[in-house]
C-alpha cells in the first residue's frame, strides 16, 4: 500500500512539473478599447479578453483561444513587485506590429487581476487552455 501512495505522489509531482514546463514566457500590457475587434467585430465578448501579438495571432487562428496568463515579475524598476496572480482570457483581437509592445495585450480588467496597472508592462508565463 505504501508503494502505491509513493507512486501517486511521484506521479503528481511529475505532472505538476510538466504543466510548469509547458508555460511560455512573454510580456503583457493592457488596453481599454475592446470593439470592434479583429476576431468578433462588434460582438461583445466580455471583459476577460486579450489581443494577441502577430506571433500568437497566426492570421486569425488564435481567435477564440483561451490562455491562462500569470504575472511573473516587472519589466522595469518603477513597480518592483506588480504581481497578484493569474487570469484566463479569450483572444478576441490582434495587437499588430510594430505598435504592439507585448506578447499579449490584456483588457484592463484582466491586467488588474494579475498585476498593478501602474506597472504598465509585466513579464508573464502563459499557457493555452
From TrEMBL:
<protein>
    <recommendedName>
        <fullName>Expansin-like EG45 domain-containing protein</fullName>
    </recommendedName>
</protein>
<dbReference type="InterPro" id="IPR036908">
    <property type="entry name" value="RlpA-like_sf"/>
</dbReference>
<keyword id="KW-0964">Secreted</keyword>
<keyword id="KW-0732">Signal</keyword>
<feature type="signal peptide">
    <location>
        <begin position="1"/>
        <end position="23"/>
    </location>
</feature>
<feature type="domain" description="Expansin-like EG45">
    <location>
        <begin position="25"/>
        <end position="129"/>
    </location>
</feature>
<dbReference type="InterPro" id="IPR044206">
    <property type="entry name" value="EGC1/2"/>
</dbReference>
<dbReference type="Pfam" id="PF03330">
    <property type="entry name" value="DPBB_1"/>
</dbReference>
<dbReference type="InterPro" id="IPR009009">
    <property type="entry name" value="RlpA-like_DPBB"/>
</dbReference>
<dbReference type="GO" id="GO:0009627">
    <property type="term" value="P:systemic acquired resistance"/>
</dbReference>
<dbReference type="InterPro" id="IPR007112">
    <property type="entry name" value="Expansin/allergen_DPBB_dom"/>
</dbReference>
<dbReference type="GO" id="GO:0048046">
    <property type="term" value="C:apoplast"/>
</dbReference>
Amino acid at each position: 500500500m505504501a508503494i502505491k501512495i509513493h507512486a501517486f505522489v511521484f506521479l503528481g509531482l511529475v505532472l505538476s512539473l510538466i504543466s510548469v514546463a509547458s508555460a511560455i514566457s512573454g510580456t503583457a500590457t493592457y488596453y481599454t478599447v475592446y470593439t470592434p475587434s479583429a476576431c468578433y467585430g462588434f460582438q461583445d465578448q466580455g471583459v476577460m479578453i486579450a489581443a494577441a501579438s502577430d506571433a500568437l495571432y497566426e492570421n486569425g487562428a488564435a481567435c477564440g483561444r483561451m490562455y491562462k496568463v500569470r504575472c511573473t515579475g516587472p519589466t522595469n524598476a518603477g513597480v518592483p513587485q506588480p504581481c497578484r496572480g493569474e487570469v484566463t482570457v479569450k483572444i478576441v483581437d490582434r495587437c499588430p506590429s510594430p505598435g504592439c509592445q507585448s506578447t499579449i495585450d490584456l483588457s484592463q480588467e484582466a491586467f488588474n487581476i494579475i498585476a498593478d496597472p501602474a506597472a504598465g508592462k509585466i513579464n508573464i508565463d502563459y499557457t493555452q487552455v
